[in-house]
Amino acid sequence: MSSCPQTAITANAKIFLVFATRLASKDVNEYINTANKLKNWLGSEKAYYPDALCNIVLLLKIAHQTFMTRFLHIESSAVAAMDIYQALIRTVIPFLPLFTEEDLQYMC
User: Fold this and answer.
1) How far apart are CA 27 and CA 47, in angstroms?
2) What Rg do the C-alpha atoms of the chain give, in angstroms?
3) Which of 3, 23, 44, 82 lies in the 20 to 30 Å Cα band around 52?
4) DSSP letters of the chain?
5) pTM of the predicted protein model
């Protein structure tokens, strides 16, 4: 895992808030577009710097909660939302070793 310059950390902190808001959207298209952007960002090991791990976990929780409460039971949006949610989770799986319980206990 490479280090992340402070300016990127500061910029990402603002982006995490935008991701959180948009992932909680009632609009399935906004959810899908945001989850896709997050998926692309999480495809790089650079995304998993120590200060980002708690935010990544939080964003995944928001994506899950939104999918379960807003889209799962609406047939017209369930499949599209499910596809991007699954893709988002699959993107993170190779990086799971970077999420140690000890790290998350101290950072969250």
Assistant:
1) 26
2) 14
3) 82
4) -----HHHHHHHHHHHHHHHHHHT-S-HHHHHHHHHHHHHHHTSGGG--GGGHHHHHHHHHHHHHHIIIIITT-HHHHHHHHHHHHHHHHHHGGGGGG--HHHHHHH-
5) 0.88
Average pLDDT, the chain: 90
**Orientation of helix 28-42 relative to helix 6-23, angle to 10°:** 150
- Reading the block at residue 36, the tokens are 């896709």
**Average pLDDT rounded to a whole number, residues 5-25:** 93
Neighbours of 85 (CB within 10 A): 23
The encoded tokens of residue 94 equal: 């190779």
